[in-house]
Structure formats: C-alpha cells, structure tokens
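Box 4.2: Ligand-aware structure prediction
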Amino acid sequence: MKVVYADNNATTKVAPEVLEEMLPFFSNYYGNPSSMHLFGGQVAKNIDNARQKVAALIGAEPEEIVFTSCGTESDNTAILGILRANPRKKHIVISRVEHPAVYNLCTYLAQNGYHVTELGVDKNGMLNPDELSDAVREDTAVVSIMYANNETGVIFPIEKIAGIVKQKGSVLHTDAVQAVGKIPLNLSQSSIDLLTISGHKLHAPKGVGALYIRKGTSISPFIIGGHQEKNRRGGTENVPSIIGLGKACELAKKCMGEEQTRVKQLRDRLEREIVEKAPDAIINGYKSPRLPNTTNISFEFVEGEAILLLLNEKGICASSGSACTSGSLEPSHVLRAMGVPFTAVHGSVRLSLCRYNTSEDVDYIVEHLPPIVRRLRQISPYNRDSKFQGQVSASHHC
Ligand code: PLP
C-alpha cells in the first residue's frame, strides 16, 4: 500500500546522510569522549565538530550548545536550571499553548510553591506582547514562550518578546523544537537566553537534543553527575546520536531555502485544495505567520479521530489536534485557547510535511481526505442538520 507520511511535527525520518555519518560511532569509534587516550580523544573531536554544526544552524557559539537527551530534557533543564540558580524568584511566565514539556512542568511547579502566569492567545493563535510586558514582575525568574506552535505552526514574535523580557530584567527561554531547521534563526542578533532543540524533529534520531545557553547566563545543571558538557549536563554522551544531530543541522542549513519555497508551496496547495473540496473547513492560525510545513484544519461536525483512522486505511499518516487518541476526551488545549468552536475543535487534523514529501503526496491526500470528511459528515450526530445536535453538544464539557 502507498504510504504518505504527513506527520513530521510528531517525528521525522532519519536522513540517509545522517545515518551514514552515525554508523562508524557504533563500531569503530566507540571510545568514551572523556577518556584521556587517543581513542577517546578522537571521539571528543567529533563531538566538538557536531557542536559547531548545531551552533552554525542557529547563529550561536559552539560553547553555548549543551547536548541533552531530547527536547523535553532541554525544556526541563532550562526552566529548572534557571529556577535553581535564582532561588528567591518564584514567578514564571508561559503561554497557554506551550507543549506539555513546558506546560506540565509549570503545572507541577505551580503545585510546588511557584506562581505561574499563563498568557492567552487570540483566535489566530497569536500572543499579545503588551500582555507579556504587564505579566513580567521583579520576582519573575524565567519567561518560557515557544518559538513556533507544534499543533498550528503559528510563529510567535519571539524577538519582540525577547526585547521586552530583557528590558524587564528577566530571562527568556524559548522552546524552538518546531522552528529549528524549518525557519532561519540567528541567535547572535537576538536577546534569547536559552533555546531548546530536539533531534528527531529535524531528521536526526530520537533520543538526542540540545540546549542553547547564552554565554553569561547563570544556570544550575538539571542532571547532576560527571563533568561532561562543561559541568552543565552529567552523563556519558550519546555519541552516535550527537554526531547525527550535527549532520542533520548541517543538512538543514543547506535545505532551509527548499523548506521556505517548495515545501511551503506544497503545504499551501494542500490547504487550498482541501478547503475547496471540503466545505466548513477552517484552517487554524491561517492569519498568523506560520511554519512553512504545517497545516491544522478543523472539519466542522466530524471527529478528528475518525478522520485519522480512515486516512490511516489509505496509508496517510497525520495526527489529530486533540488528545483524544491518548484515551482522554479533552480536546486540544491549543485550539481551546484559540477559541475554536466546539463543533470544530474535535474535528481537527494536523498535516505536517518535510523535504521528502512530493507533489504526488499532496495529490494523494487531496484525493482521499475530502471524501472521508463528506462520508463522516453524513453520518455525524454533530451535523448541524441533525436533530441530535443540541443534545450531543450539551453532553460535552469544553
Ligand atoms: N516542544 C515541542 C514544541 C514539541 O513539539 C516537542 C515534541 O513534540 C517537544 C517539545 C518534546 O521534544 P522531545 O520529543 O524531543 O522530548
């Protein structure tokens, strides 16, 4: 069966060039980079080389890059590391649409002695920087606002946000897991203090990430152990994956132009043709600046999960904007924060492309998705023509 993978915001395929670069580090070059001998030293040199490539992609200095095990660890390290370095400051500012790696951590912190201010977004998924300015206080240890949203692709005005945070004397962390490799970033021209990267979102393997820590930022380590990563992250390095992340960053730098043009054109055509063929479709975040690869579409009066199951039968991999697939009936916190109507929030589907998607992939999705939506709408109790509609809406609480 034909398979069209359109779930690249969930994870990406490891690029063949990345895998090739990693392989010798499972076999020939297995030394511990902390060892004094030549065998270890060789590996340490390659890690430094990878560090340079990660830094080059985001306009940072190599010493500002700390390797971690994933985006979640980088987010936790940034926020907990700043809190531990500033024990008197007990206030944190985040947005209501953060990834659980930030959002759930801050929920935990709110239950454990910290005050967390959550900034809302408007119906276009956009945050108001003026509200941020009002929210930052003298005791604000850290502001953590994502660069681009994983569900809608909406890009926040992070440089403006960074300017406000700096002026207020606080520290800005940004979760840039979805932005890095898709849009150009230049931290040498920025006031961002900490920035999260995850390998598996940019064609490196799972289980590796990085945290950018601006020179001079005072931060305590999250994982305490050996002297690795200049005492900023204990634990023997995941050498093959770090080498893979370096190569993936080098490739992403080369392919960035394509992401902005060809991949964006594919995404734009996908949206256009789906909206033409499936009435009552709403593109979430359409009016805001967005990542070039992402679309999040709500189909009114149908269940997103049902769409995904039928897409899956056709070999199309997408994901739902809601958490229903994980067994909870709670709809997406991101779409709820945007005020997407009840009749649409449950029927959202995210399609996220990458440089390996083709025009034929888009044709295939456009051929199959609208008929699936039409079919489901005919049998939907949510349908506006259905006599059950009022009863069903009333029984959901969102
Ligand atoms: N932050 C964002 C915006 C994400 O999209 C993800 C993954 O989906 C993460 C953090 C977590 O990254 P990881 O899977 O590497 O822990």
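In the box above, the bound molecule is pyridoxal-5'-phosphate. Residues 126 and 362 are 28 Å apart (CA to CA).
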